[in-house]
Amino acid sequence: VSRQLKEEIRRGFARLEDPLAGLLAMLESSTDWRGKGHSLGYCITTELQLWIKAHPAGPQSGTKLKKLQSRALGLLSQCPANLLDPLISIYQLHTLDRNCLLEHVSHLYLQGNYKEAALLSIKLKLQPDQDVEKMCTPLLLQDKANLVEDYVAEYPELQRKLLQTLDTWCEPSFNIRDITRPYQGLSRYKPEKFNRRVLSKLVFRLLQRFNVDPALCPNVINQQHLRTLKYLFYKRFVEKTMTEENWADHIQSTVGDSRWLQAQLVQLLLRHCGARGAARWALHCHLPPETLPRAVAEELHNLHTQDRVEEVTKADNYESSKKKDYYQLPIPRENIHFLQTWEEALQCWEKVLQPGQVVGVDMEWKPSFGMVGKPRVALLQLALREEVFLLDLPRLLEQADSRGEKEKLPRFIQMLYSDPAITKLGYGMSGDLSSLVATCSALKDMEKQMQSVVDLLAVDKQVDGPSPEHSQEQEKGLRQPEKGLSLLVQHVLGKPLDKREQLSNWEKRPLREEQILYAASDAYCLLEIYERLCKDPESFGLSSDLTESLVGKQSKKPKAKKQLSKQEASSPSGQECQGGRTEPSCPPGPISPQEFSVVCDTMLQGLGRYLRCLGVDVRLLDNEDDHRRAAEIARQEGRVILTSGFPYQTLRSQVGEGRCFSVNCSEKAKEQALQVLKHFNVQVSLGDIFSRCQ
């Protein structure tokens, strides 16, 4: 608003005998202010608000003020959201009788103005005196979940009531049509947005946003656990990419003492293993015999412990025979050190923090399988040429806390990452660093100080792949195609990584021997890849100046990049697939939106539309599409998958590393888009905006 206009508005107020009545008369007779944006009516209203502060008048008579308040209240249901606060302030509507305000909002509700009723309730703080289910149900039917979140944002008791209501609707025996039936004639009703899947996602979003105990929503949590069970069965019996012990660990921790989940487990076991196999696992998982089907219970009765031991031994022998097909650590087992005390850690630091040292860095954490919470690092692996150190972070942090020395661990990690004389190797390090920050908040600014960091994910995209004959041979061998770091290890070192321990429970102690070997291999292989690529880049289809870019420029400080902790925390697997970071090793240049192609999963249609407005090539899944359709499109058209929550587990295994990105559903579309653009280094110009619109 120009200074001249502001001055003219203020002079007008000064000439009026009653500026409050004058503003109402203007708004009641004009339609200009009813549109979106900063209309003339909005400018006049906000200027009056400032003018009143500068020229306080004597108190108005009660009767006169009440008449003005009544007229102002009538305007609130018609005015845009940006006028609510100024009008409430100018006419002191919060001082009106609360029953009068509630009656006005109820009248709006009965007229079908559900959004306006909710907005006014929020502004006047009427929520404690309202029925949260009644107020929020029509908003959810109109796909206004963000308004529902705002409605309960400041009231923990209402948050719990809303979550309990949503959880009741997600109960398998509940008929959702009982909720929708009274609202069949609702304007802007979106029935496709009101189903158990969408409601479950909303529940998880609310649990995370408001930090509510998930135990409040047993139906949603059990359904999520059931999806986790089905995923684990797929990994073990279809993909065959999990060891038996690893699988059993997750099965037991997922099922727990829930009788319902135990029954679901038995049905899955029957389908995949038969009655005898189901009985063996029922014994292994300590399932109560009375919960088992008759055929399984009979097998359990006949099953002897010796039979079980023999079967497990056979399985172990079979799996050990497969190990020769995978990358093997070239150092002896005694050179792998599992460190749980600060005395041991100090010896590790002395060896790692040496000028000229090259360190392979990796981290492991327990997969969350779509549950609420940020992944916390359970194991930090540091590989040197002759030995590997596995740091038990939870134990070390606990010891430091008990001694009042919380700064010990972050100080060591910061020294390591900021030292330009030490080369740090990683693969997709952005996800690791985000989880490290979630584990130790003192490291939140570390990424700005990092030097001499080489993310081999950026190099991986340039490495020539295997010949078609090799791929066909792998398919004939019935082994899942390699991807990510495992594929890079196969290209460069000849054999892939054995990833069957990747989804282990890394918080459980003691670690199994297979976990220790997997963790050490994951970090150590980075050293061998780095050495091989630097010595002979041409044989892998890389430019001859790769050595200079990897070795000679590492003292440069990388560009500071905002930590994407919120985004990476939504990853259910705890192993985030990241795109290339801006590293000093091989910095990927910025790309335009026209060069960036994505496919958005069903729950991210708002994000997809926002990115399309910025010029990004976007494909949106339809509501009825299966999540796996995203992987088909991504492979066929070379697109990056944008997804969130549990589907990330399945989709990331069907595309290459860095080609599946997990978005935080608790953010709005604009914040989600900013995360995606920053992560993939997409630079938007003015000419890109709306460039794809008709």
UniProtKB/TrEMBL annotation:
GO annotation, biological process: nucleobase-containing compound metabolic process
Domain 3'-5' exonuclease: 336-538
Keywords annotated in UniProt: Exonuclease, Hydrolase, Nuclease
Region (Disordered): 549-589
Compositionally biased tracts (Basic residues): 554-564
Transmembrane segments: none
Alphabetical list of Pfam families matching this protein: DNA_pol_A_exo1 (PF01612), Mut7-C (PF01927)
GO molecular function, one term: nucleic acid binding
UniProt xrefs under InterPro entries: 3'-5'_exonuclease_dom, Exonuclease_MUT-7-like, Mut-7_DEDDy_dom, Mut7-C_RNAse_dom, RNaseH-like_sf, RNaseH_sf
PANTHER family in the cross-refs: 3'-5' EXONUCLEASE DOMAIN-CONTAINING PROTEIN, EXONUCLEASE MUT-7 HOMOLOG
Identification of the protein by name: MUT7 Exonuclease
Gene: Exd3_0
